[in-house]
Records
---
Amino acid sequence: MRQIARLARLGTVAASILALVEMTGAKADDYPSQDIHLLCAYQAGSSSDAIVRFIGEKLKLASGRTVIVENKPGANANIATEYAVRAKPDGYTIFIHAGSALAANQHLLKSPLPDPTKSVQMIGTINRQAFILGVDAGKPWNTLADLTAAMKAKGAKASYASYSTSGTIMGELYKQATGIEATEVLYRIGANTLNDLKSGAIDYGMYDPAFALAQAREGRMKLLAIASNDRMVSSPDVPTFKEQGIEGIHLMGWFSAMVPAGTPKPIVDQLSKWLNEIVASEDTRKFLISMGSDPWVSSPEIAQKQLAQDIEEMGRLVKVAKIVPQ
């Protein structure tokens, strides 16, 4: 009797497991059967928001479902990140965010969120972008060498603008490479630096490419160097630090799409297929280039590997820039 009861219990457990497997498979096969939510870690109207909404419109066409963008700004993107990792792993909550920023937060916060290599599953990448050093268009400096010489002459009175971790790191690397003594002045957004840049209250700034290229097109700013090893397709006229004789300033940001860890592989594969088709399309390419970034198509595996590499590299750079975790 005991043996019969034991077999009955095992049969019940096996049936439950089989039912769970079949249910998971059915959900994956039916995907998507409801609205898809895209998370943005920044406010509406930001360059990040523009990218999320553009991808959202394309995903709506690909999936045949309504796609809703939810902006959850604040706490250095951690509000959106925490929401994303705690979401149900069913493919209906997708976080579009800079994988490079996700990696940096592991070293910028005293109490970071769980290891993103384990708490999120990458779907794929969207773009690559690099910060740019810019000066007011009315200043006499036309090359990085011009600026460096002027800042050395100015000594401790030199100053520069920054409004992000990438800008802070880039500014510190530039100072260390050239021996200048400029003081960093922190701003909330790039637009807030323009009056001070024009008046001479600050000498130069470290800008995200979408903002910097827009200012250059309007004739308000000259762009002297970009923090990539090679020139970018989106900004072919901006020389790199490397080609101007300054090595080691390579800060590539990249946007990605991700879902909570544990999302069924068939759903991840379907989302990856849609994302790659979206990013590879000509109109997406034109849009991303207009935003100061180069399109980047990749697999979930490549994106996951890049995230792990960036976590390690950002740890080194945060120490080099002497940034104290908050």
---
Amino acid sequence: APKFYYNLTGNRENQAQYAQAMVQLKSEQNVEGLVHELQAELDPLFPAARVIVQQLQQGPPYDAPVEMRIYGPDIDTLRRLGVEVREMATTIPDVVHVRDDLTEGRPKLGLTVDNEQVRRAGLNNTELAQQLEAYSEGVTGGAILESTENLPVRVRLTNPDRASLDQLASLDLRPDQGQDRAFRPTSALGEFELLAENANIARRDEQRVNTVQAYITAGVLPDTVLKALQEKLEAANFELPPGYRYEFGGEFEERNSAVGNLVLYVPLLLLVMLTALVLSLGSFRQAGIIAVVAIGSVGMALFSLKAFGSLLGFMAIVGTMGLVGIAINGAIIVLSAFNEDPQAKEGDPRAVQAVVVKATRHVLTTTITTMVGFVPLLADGDPFWQPLAIAIAGGIGGSPILALYFTPAAYLLLKRRKPKSSQQQPIESSDLALEHSTT
């Protein structure tokens, strides 16, 4: 299929054993339930095929959600280790299918020749192989000039003749030179048999690798299956021979890579935000309150994703990171109002309460207008944008609680310590003045 979605992989072209199809639903349905139903029906219908039914996924592209790569020099050892990991993975309930690179064979037609008969026919193994290749794959017998291109013409047997083992066994093979015109079919020179060869010998970073891939049930987090696989490896005391190593790929690797690229800019962004908050509020402690509010808003975003049944994919992580700058606006409004009120600035609880009541309208208005902007994305149900909208709207929806309840309480706790130290000095000076007047 053409690459119409951002995370589809396109490395399966010109493979006769692979097919891909897309189903677009005409009405709103339970997509996850439909995927489960189709997977259960198609597996017994096509037992000789590996059928994977899934909906469009979130996050960076990957071939399989759970992967384990085993590196080493010897192919037989890599195949044996891959079989052991496959046996463990198949016992995990949420795993639908498991495959690896080295246990999959590709059928190959081989000819075991009778050397004595070949010599009597005046042939050798090289000539025999060349004639068989000419009959089956064809030889270039000329060219056709098509506009400005010179197109070669390949001559070979017809498709029915090439696909029939009986036809290949009855081919007339003769030496290039000599007067021997006797008919010698291929079956008189050897015996055809079906052989299995490795479909591919994969390499990664110039090392031989056997990649074990596990396809999981729709709606199940890949981390859940990966942790179950790690527990089984630990319980089975899975150890590699010297010179071999393994690593995990799939969604785990791609997600960490994508998030790692985003996290590279987090220190710079935090420094800019901290500088702006300290300059605006004039206090490192109040900037600390804002930081706690930011962390709390991230927790509310994660809770919203869990409550709405949305996966913590790449777009959800992006939305959670972008949420922080919006969710702290309410707390900044409340703290700025405290600093502008003389009595609230001194830590008077009644004054703080009055300021919070006045600021409630501004905080709620800002929150509601921001959340309304994400209603189209929430209602549309688009699998690409919906996790981002749920994360941002959920985090913003809980920000008024942090701004109107947590922020005043934390502000009073900070001010409760400050009056004790500030009132101590006037008391001592008054005592000295009283002692001096008495003297």
